[in-house]
Amino acid sequence: MEIILSCIFCRIIDKQIPASIIYEDEKAVAFLDIHPINEGHVLVVLKRHEERLSGLSEDEAGYLLKIGRKLLKAIQESGIKCEGANLFLSDGPTAGQEVMHSHLHIAPRFEGDGQRVGFIHSDPAQYPRARLDQIATAITDKLARPDKFETITQPTLETKRLILRPYRESDLADIFAYASHPEVSKFVPWEAHIAIEDSKKFLDLVKLSTRTIRDKLYYVFAVRLKESGQVVGSIDFKNVNPCIGQIDYALGFDFWNKGIMSEAAEAIRDWAFENLPKMVRLQAFCVADNVGSSRVMEKIGMTREGMRRKAFVLKGNPVDLIDYAIVRDHEGR
Fold this sequence. Notes:
The protein is an alpha+beta fold. It has 2 domains: 8-109, 2-Layer Sandwich (HIT family, subunit A); 149-331, Gcn5-related N-acetyltransferase (GNAT) (Aminopeptidase, 3-Layer(aba) Sandwich). It is built from 8 helices and 13 strands. The chain is globular.
């Protein structure tokens, strides 16, 4: 999970700043608003940083409401004055979104609370039936033609020694085998898996996070050895925006220094540049002490761009990050 240091919600999620947290699981956290509409005003936030609702997967958006429903029931049963409630999501600064990390408000309401959450209604004469029908057609046309939101099925990529494919439930034991080693988790935000349930949570998170809309992709690939069929690590690709892609990876300790992750990263690099014409930059970063990860980036042609000092909080400690990238024009791609 990437922590955006400029985002106050990410910092709350990472326990860098205090909050009155009422709920937390592996996907979401909920805490009290410090500027509440009424007592018990809660914010529900997914742990994956995404600024806008349109950037969330269907599962993520549904999960936000699922947790909201659960918390509303608890609020209603808690003794907090709550005769009704407003559940709302402000999407974008123009709509009143103040923190650019998509979140759901749950605001308890009661008769005479002096609050008003709503809109100033326009004059009905401004919207005759013909105009309403025109607007309805524009929206239903967008719904009826999914090509307007082109999706790209996560591919399966093949190299000399590897197959990169979506994760499967049958990979659970292999995930635990590599993710339980403390050296593998040393330079990443997640802790070493202690029980198979930790690996199951990882699979659930992959399923929740996957996005297939062009220019908003997020894929996590299982790195599988052809010879043995064993899954020995993971590599993910995401669109930071339509023009920028990013890779992150982890590899089982027993398979370090064999060129495996470089081979996997090359395959992702080539697929991305060949299939995403808007993408002009592929980037990655690593903790400064992670020499092996730096070597992978250099092997696939990335250029070291510099160091960001104390730019990432890793397991509670600020660390330096090294940025790498490869740019389409510079590489003649």
